[in-house]
Amino acid sequence: MKNKILLLGAGLVSKPLVTYLLKHDFFVTVADMVMEKAEAIIEQHPNGKAIKWVVEEEDKLEEMVKESDIVISLLPYIYHVRVAKVCLEFNKHLVTASYVNDEMRALDRQAKRKNLIFLNEVGLDPGIDHMSAMKLINDIRNKGGEVVSFESYCGALPAPESADNPLKYKFSWSPRGVLLAGRNSAKYMKDGKTIEIKPENLFDDYHNINIKGIGEMEFYPNRDSVSYIDVYKLDGISTMFRGTIRYKGWSELMSVVSKSGWLSLDKIETNGKTYKDITAELTAISKDKLEEELLTKYNATGKTRIIDKFRWMGLLSDDKIDKGKIAPIDILTDLLLSKMSYKKGEKDMVILFHKIVGEFKEGKKLYTSLMIDYGVEGEETSVARTVALPAAIATRMILEDKIKLRGVRIPVQEEIYTPILEELENIGIKFEEKTEKV
Question: Are 371 and 424 in contact (CB under 8 A)?
Fold first, then answer.
C-alpha cells in the first residue's frame, strides 16, 4: 500500500517536490485555495489528487491530515504551528522549509512523546545551507580540528545571461518577500567582535566576493548570524557570518531605496499622485530638486547611476498611481514585478558558498564549498529545485525510516543531512569542495 503524503500549498516551488515524490511511487494529495494550481502540479497523475482548500477550513484540514501518513507545509510560515497542532492530534509527521520559531519549538516534547518528527528548515536557505555547512564542520571535527571562522553566502539570482536589467535582479520568489528582507536588522561576529547593523544601514555594510565561474559579486549581512553559533555548536568561534549574494551595484541602490522610505509599511494616500510625487513626499525633497538632492541627502554622491536606476524603476516617473491608501513597499512591489519577472527563455541561478577555517595541531586549513545551480528553462527554476527537493527527499527518508530522529528538528544532525545531501548529488545538486593551508 502506498504511503499517502499531504502537501499544503501549490506555490511557485512546489512542482519539483510533487514530481519527485510521484516518481518514487508515493500517493500525493495537493491542497490549495486555487484548484487549478493544484491540478496543474498533479498533471492527472494516477497517484495524485488535487483538493480545493483554504486555511480557514479547520475541519477539512483535520480530515486531510487524518487520511495522510505525513504532511508537508509550503504555506506561509505563520500557518505552520496551526498545521503542526493538527499533526499532533492525529499522530502525523510534518516537514516544512521555513525557519523554526518559538511556538514550533515549544511542541518538541509533545512530538517526541508521540514518536513524531517535525522537520523544519529543510529547503535552500534555510536548508541546504545548514546541511552542507554541518558536513564541513563535522569533517573538521572528525579530523581533530576546531572551527575558528565560519562564513556562508547565498544568493538566488538571474543567470549571467539573463541579468539584463540595470538592477541585475529578477524575482524567482515572492517580490514582497525580497523587499521585506531589506527591512531586516543584522548581527554577526568578526574577529571576536559582535557587530550589529540597524535596518536602515543594512545595505551600507556590503563587500565584494569573487565566485568561481561567475566573477566579482557583492554580499551584505543576512539577519542574525550570531544565533547560529549555538545551532552549529561553535562556542568560542571568532568569526561567524552569513551573507546574501547579489550582482554588484545592488546594495548601494537599495541603501537609497531603503533610506528614502520606499520600504515603509505605513500606508499613504496615492490617489491623484504620481510616483515622482510619492518619492518627493517620502524624502521631503521638492519635486524640482529631487534628482539633484536625492544622492546628497543619502550620502550617495558620485553614484549617479543610482538616479538612472530610480528612473528605470519608475520612481521618478509622472505616471499616476491611484491605488488609494497603500504602503510604499506594496507600490514598489507592483512596480518592480512588471519590470523584473523572468521571461520565456530566461534562467535563474542559485549560489551557495561556504568558507570555514579549521585549526589543527599542524596549523590552520581553509575549507571551501561551492554550489552553483541553474534553472531549466520551461521546466523549473533553480529556486524551486533547491527549496523543494530537500523537503521532498526528507519526506521520503522519513517514510522509509532512514531518518529516525524525533521531535522538532532542523537538518543539522548527520542522520538527517547525510542521506539528503547524497540524494541531492544524485539528482545534480552538488558542491565543489576544496581544502588548502592558511
Answer: no
Residue 438 lies in a domain: no
45-78: per-residue pLDDT in tens?
Answer: 999 999 999 999 999 999 999 999 999 999 988 9
pLDDT bucket at 2, cuts 50 / 70 / 90: confident
Catalytic residue (one of 125, 129, 348, 373): 125
Both 285 and 355 in one domain: the answer is: no
Domain membership flag for residue 406: no
Average pLDDT over residues 151-178: 92
Q: What is the CATH number of the domain that holds 367?
A: 3.30.360.10
Share of the chain above pLDDT 70, in %: 100
Is the pLDDT score of 147 beyond 80?
yes
93 and 9 share one domain: yes
In terms of domains, do 109 and 213 share one? no
Q: Is 125 a catalytic residue?
A: yes
The boundaries of the domain holding residue 279 are 267-326
Is 332 among the domain residues?
Answer: no
Residue 401 neighbours by CB distance under 10 Å: 7
Instruction: Give pLDDT, residue 35.
Output: 95
